[in-house]
Specification:
alpha/beta, Rossmann fold, binds flavin mononucleotide
């Protein structure tokens, strides 16, 4: 049995959000095809993820005990390390990810749990895990020249690779806010791609 962590980074409802239309379809398809697996939904806004305080930093860098697993910040890094697969649902905000996702990664990136420092530098501790990044954008950023400006998919991929996750796929629905675009067609294509990837994820 695998555990899937479904990380939602948008304050909008499932009905309003085009990102969530795609990610919910991915999750529904996944559940149908992997009925024995556990899917944990982590809506970052409902979780109340906030910026790290000075106290949080002491907890992150301090000694870890059995009690750390229930610490309001550290519990997220343990949960992340225990999951087998990750599904990220992310709208592009100002060329990057919504700030709440960065704040969440500040909870998750804990030395000794998701990565460690060695004499050769940092090494990821998350092995044999896979991830899918479902990203929506108003414009087009996955191809040159605008791909130079793209810091959402690249950021998530880089953070995951840093923690050792090697198998990462992206489903990108782009040009959703460009006048004259057939937005429903773009969404239908993304939904189809999500369905295909979810079956074998
Ligand atoms: C605060 C904010 C910033 C945004 N910045 C960008 C951007 O830099 N580039 C872009 O292509 N789209 C940008 N968008 C548009 C969204 O990425 C796009 O509308 C996306 O489809 C929203 O997904 P949703 O329907 O799930 O909210 C931005 C939207 C918001 C709300």
């Amino acid at each position: 049995m695998s555990t899937v962590l479904y990380i939602k980074a948008n304050p909008k409802s499932d009905e309003e959000s085009r990102t969530f239309q795609i990610s919910e379809h991915f999750i529904e398809t996944y559940k149908k095809n992997h009925p024995e697996d556990q899917v944990i939904t982590l809506d970052l806004y409902k979780e109340g993820i906030r910026f790290l305080t000075n106290e949080d930093i002491y907890a992150i860098f301090g000694p870890k005990t059995e009690e750390s697993k229930n610490h309001p910040v550290l519990k997220y890094t343990y949960q992340f390390a225990q999951a087998d697969k990750y599904v990220f649902a992310i709208p592009m905000w100002n060329l990057s990810v919504p700030a709440i996702l960065k704040a969440y990664f500040d909870y998750v990136m804990v030395s000794g749990i998701t990565f460690k420092y060695t004499e050769h530098g940092a090494v990821g501790l998350l092995k044999n895990k896979k991830a899918v990044c479902i990203l929506t954008t108003g414009g087009e950023y996955m191809t040159p020249p605008m791909s130079d400006f793209e810091m959402a998919n690249r950021y998530v991929n880089t953070i995951l690779a840093f923690m050792g996750v090697e198998d990462i796929k992206t489903i990108a629905a782009q040009r959703l806010d460009i006048q004259g675009e057939d937005v429903q067609k773009i969404l239908n294509e993304a939904l189809k791609e999500a369905e295909e990837i979810a079956k074998s994820f």
